[in-house]
Amino acid sequence: MADSLKNVIAQSLECPVCLNTFTDPKILSCSHTYCKACLDNLLECHGNDQMLRCPVCRAETQVSNQDVSKLPANLALRSLIEDVKNHYQFCSICKSEDKTQAVVYCQDCGKYLCITCHNTHSLWRDFISHDVIAISEIESWKVSVRGYRKCRKHPKEDEECFCSDCRRFACFRCVVMEHKDEGHRIIEAAVYESSHMKSIEVLKSTAEKKRSCFQKYVDFIDEQRERVSNVQKQCTDDINKAYEESVKQLTKKKEILIGEVKGKTEGVEKELDELKKSAQEHITHLTNIADVVTNRTKIPLDMDALAAHDTLRQDLQEALKQEDPDYKQPMQSSKKGESIIFKRNGGMEELTLGKIVNGVAKSIALPSKDSMNAMVSTPDGRMAVGCRTGGVEIFSADGQIKQTVFKHVEILGVGFLSDDRYVILDASNNITLYTLEYTKLKVRFETLSSVEGGIANLTVDDDDQIYVSYWNAQKIQVFSPAGGKAIWEIPCDGYVPVQITSYNDYLIIASGNTIRLIDKQGDVKYELAKSGDFVRAVVSQGNTILTATVKHDEGFVSIDEYSNELKHVQNLVGDYKIEKPEEAWYYLQQYKSGEIAFCTPDRLYIFY
Fold first, then answer.
1. What are the E-state strand segments in 231-382?
2. For residue 438, is it left (φ>0), alpha (ψ between -120 and 50) or beta?
3. Backbone φ, ψ for residue 171 (5° rounding)
4. What is the spatial distance between Cα 203 and Cα 93, in angstroms, rounded to a whole number?
5. Are 383 and 377 in contact (CB under 8 A)?
6. Concatenated DSSP letters of 483-507
7. What pLDDT digit, counting tens, does each position of 447-493 carry?
8. Is residue 430 very low, low, confident or very high in pLDDT (cuts 50, 70, 90)?
9. Can you give the pLDDT at residue 604?
10. Model-level pTM?
């Protein structure tokens, strides 16, 4: 009876999943108990699900945060396991009252054996092949006792049968009494166990193949990852190399920019130093003569002394006649230097630090919005801006509007003759001359109408010849101040003369993004194409050619200086941000005092 009870207890201490003695037993909500490690494995099999399904009854248990350790422990079972672990097993064979402590357990006999009985058991030929386990391994839970199952109803009977329909082991007596009806398929327990183990082996083999299949897949993923890792390494190396090269380029660009600033500022400083040197020399000269003349304690009496004194007095008087210093020239030089700005790039599309640009001194809103049509420097050094809605606005070099004339004339072009008479081209392509007092002169010019010639533009050369260009007709008519018919015509083959400017014996034609220098027979001598949306040109006070390149969509203007052969001399204004107008129409001129005027339909910009 004691051995049967021990077997029942041993079976109760086995986890239904791992079939070993419970380790850290945890209770599910359905009251079934499993090892914590087995529950961790079961939960892992369900992925990230927090619901754990009991393998026996399939009831679900909520596992908060997938932490099995938070499930209640089976304290009674844990205590029982400890008691069994600490309880000595005695030999099942010895008949004496003083039981001898067992050292092994025979799985086939289902008996605990002391050392003496174990030695005898080992000598019996029929028992040599029995599975014998050391008690130390059982107590350390390395091996679980799997002896014969004893029937709970008939404890002396082994469960040697298995009912496939009831899925239960049973002893022979239970089979006769409970499993005799039709439909109960009874087989030997050993046959079932053998079949079960074979199916386990098949599952194990299939699982191994599937595991191998997925392992190959994992290995393939590792290969792909290694390829990506190699790409990352290669890209990183390339980036580091590009970075080092970029640093070299940026360092070189930095040195160029610093040199450019130094060159621009040193030129201004040299101008100011020369002005200072000249003033200091005059101070020294004036001081020396004044000292010689005025620091005398005696009156010159003889003729030589009188003559010397008179000469020195005359020299002093001549020195005193020199005009007071003109602050305008050093102020202009200073403005030239102060307008130098380093403009950092807004984006990193190009590997550049930025550009050295000249700052704008003034930005003036025109009185008539979106109506500027013409601009020209006046004889008295101011700037005339013509508006197609009517009127010519006169601006000083500091951006102040001084007056408005011809308010009722729709202006298309403005020019001046050598006697300062106005030459006005109106919206109907008619030319009219006006005196300085704005009196209209009765001189008629036979120009092409706006229908026949299209939009027209106007310029006047040093010989008072008037040039009118036509967009549609693609030609230029030349008139004398006396009026009448054109003296001759200049063809514009293959391009539209949008704006024209007189330049020595040539004309500068602006057309789209191209500047052409043509002679007065129409032959193109030099040509310059720029990458901007629009290019406008004007003659500088130094008889060079200034161009304004406008990126209309972005709202940037750059101003450059060119030689009379359209070779680049220097950049004066680099990518200056302007308020983008609705219409893409621009004019460039220069004040006699040196300031550069750039005009949009809405605003006048004055650069130093």
1. 340-344, 354-358, 360-365, 372-377
2. left
3. -85, 170
4. 40
5. yes
6. -BS-SEEEE-TTS---EEEEETTEE
7. 999 999 999 999 999 999 999 999 999 999 999 999 999 999 999 99
8. very high
9. 94
10. 0.47
